[in-house]
Amino acid sequence: MSHNREMKVYGGIKLYAGTGSPDLAQKVAEYLHQPLCGRDVIEFPNENLFVKLHSSVRGQDVYVIQTTSSPVHRNLMELLILIQTLRLDSAARITAVIPYMAYGRSDKKDQPRVPISARLVAEMIEVAGADRYILLDPHAGQIQGFFSVPGDVLTAFHIISDHLNRIRPTMKDPVVVTVDLGFAKKGRNIAAGIDAPIAFIEKRRVANDAKAQALTVIGDVKGRDVILVDDEIDTGGSIAQAVNLVKENGALDVYIVCVHPILSKNGAERIGSLPIKGIITTDSVPITPEKMVFLKDKLTVLSVSPLLAEVMLRAHEGRSVGEMFNE
Ligand code: R5P
Q: In terms of DSSP bridges, do strands 49-53 and 39-43 run parallel, antiparallel, or are they unpaired?
């Protein structure tokens, strides 16, 4: 056997997508100049899902793109069943690419008799047959410890900072304000990325019913434009309180930045009615046309597709991902 012969462990790259974020999946495919492989995802009258691949994946390096936002349980089951189908068809390696991971907020036992659902989700993805995973800004860092297979945990921070730097000349003395202390470290990175100071809102959650209460601003917002940052906006309750609080404390223009625009219930309408200059987010979660109606004048959606695609390409080729970020 020749010593120069290149070892090739996996076959070609194959892309599959669930139905959770079709536009994002298509953009990733375009970036990689690869088609999304054909598959049927059928829901039977009894709500059971059925998946069939249109072609063989035997020996291939397969990536399954599926965000697990609404409808959460359908999207999650699609992801799991797709992975199992690929495993049973003898894919050589399967990577679950999850731009938004559901249940991320259930990441610890912070009171008696509660689950750690994010760990359960991670374990289910592994049991289904994933060899690797790619996540984007999961709610908490410890989620990567819930997986025992290797993965890449990415952040949209660079994409967001680059955009903020582009619009920074139009802002007056901007200050980055994190909507809660849990986002303080990432908020500090964003502030450093645009060379702005940082302030924090101290928030206390008072019940399990997703109601939040913003209490105090720690830091200086008076006479400044404020960039409010958080990982996700769900119902918009926290961010609405934050906008009001910084305005009461003398903020000028307010911008909202979040990675994952969940916008459940009347979240989009609520955000649309806030006295803000703009909302900057990503396409990790699709925004439906119905929600878009409330936001369109103020909304900027930055695509995470080049980031995901580049990491997938590097993972496929066995190249460093860290060097993309000047580690
Ligand atoms: C919570 O810890 C998260 O960082 C967000 O602050 C939360 O998801 C926002 O939820 P809502 O928009 O429903 O207030």
A: antiparallel
